[in-house]
Amino acid sequence: MKQRIERIKKQLHSKGYKLTPQREATLTVLLEREEDHLSAEEVFLLVKEKAPEIGLATVYRTLELLSELKIVDKINFGDGVSRYDLRKEGVEHFHHHLVCMECGSVEEIIEDLLGEVEKIVEDEWEFQVKDHRLTFHGICKQCQKVAVKAK
What we know:
By secondary structure, the protein is of the alpha+beta class. It folds into two domains: 1-90, Arc Repressor Mutant, subunit A (Orthogonal Bundle); 93-151, Dna Ligase, domain 1 (2-Layer Sandwich), CATH 3.30.1490.190. It is built from six helices and six strands. It has helices at residues 2-14, 21-32, 40-50, 56-68, 115-125, 141-150, and strands at 38-39, 72-76, 82-86, 96-100, 106-109, 135-138. Strand 4 and strand 5 (106-109) form a beta hairpin. Helix 3 packs across helix 4. The relative contact order is 0.11. Belongs to the Fur family.
């Protein structure tokens, strides 16, 4: 984790920003809970355990800065809540998600499923794709099993 924070620190410095203790506490929470897709409020509550003096506005500003610098992706799964997802290192595009409409679970698909689609968009519409996001909404394997048992 320290190596990842050090690399992010270099990214911040290259854009003229410092890794303040508040930003580091926020990053640490995001790294520790990388699979959780946390809301700003959830990040704040977890950061507050590490740095009790931190305010909600500071966490919001930090998340927005990290989002602008493409260190973190701000995502919405259709529930009206913005969530923050640390970008995977070394990947060209944002990863995809499977969102269960029953239990709300979120699974990640790391492999890029849209390479061919991207090529078509670039060739046929002369549109230079910089990134893409794909979210599937449906019923997860566990909820499907529960539904079968209930019948």
